[in-house]
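Worked problem 6 (solution included).
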Amino acid sequence: MYYRIFDCWRLVAAMLIMAYHFLFWAPYGVETGTHLLHRLMPLLDMFFMISGFFITTRYRDKIGDFASYGRFMRGRAARLLPLHYVITLFFAAIALYAWAKGAPHYPWRHNLEALPAHLLLLHAFGVTDGLALNYPSWSISAEFFAYALFPLIVLLLRVGGLKALLVAIAAWVGLLEYASANGWFGPGGWTTADAMGAYRALADFMIGAAVAIVVERRMIDVRSHLPGCLATALVVTAMLSGLDHAVVMPLIVSALVLTALAETARPESTAFLAPLMPVTRVAFGIYLIHPVMEFIFLEVVWYHGLAGTGLIGFYLYWWLPMIASVAAAMLSHRYFEPFCARGLLPPRPSRRKAERMLASA
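Solution. The predicted structure is:
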């Protein structure tokens, strides 16, 4: 089953997050634009929920022992880590260059101090002083925390079913609320955590897993896309209105459930979105790569070159790093990531060998 609508949502979220980060370089309209887009930050929670949904749907029945768990983690590493490490080392090289040049305004010390945590995937656990290097990659650290604990979610579902998972979600969220009340996550609380975002992501991931079970059991028979579209519209309205996470999060869950129910009931109903899939499937790449394009096109070319020359307006120019981010993500998905996967994953048996194995079974 291919969830085309969820892939479209992830692409839109990645593009909006990229636009939000790029807006900080604008000569005017920064406060208005960033304030508006910052209200859409719960889209990050949607990212993690969809991840929990997909992982549960595809791997819940495939993990039963340490060997299968190892294959699962190896597959996840092959999918996410090469791009993360390449971009992290890119920014580490920039920091070393800034240190060698004695650049007074570049945070090279802050970035280099954070390098070990980035390499060990610990930078979403509060071990660094804020975001550094490839700053969106805190979500990779958070994702791997959820992946590492995924067998516990599988165990909960096998032993106690959906009720056990819902109890675990309630307990974890309650613990996060208690920690927030005691100032552990800072002024924004756990719902806005990034450098400590692993704990937030686990809650979202578990919620996505619960959504997968609800959809699989078809606990509500929804076949029309209208309820999901209405729920999605409510989510966007609630975010733009600045409503609290306690309101926005249940709306996101409702939108996910209603949308997935409609698409699983009538997969052919989203066939018209198929031409967009080559772009939607690179949302992860756009999310990770756009800081590189931000550095090249906005910090180097724009800030140190074009800004103030009057040769081109910012809001026309900013399409260039956006297009470059999408293009680089598509090239990475087509060439770099498969190349790395071939090196990290065991080779698949040839068709003839697979047929011999089946015949002898």
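Discussion: The chain has one domain: 4-356.
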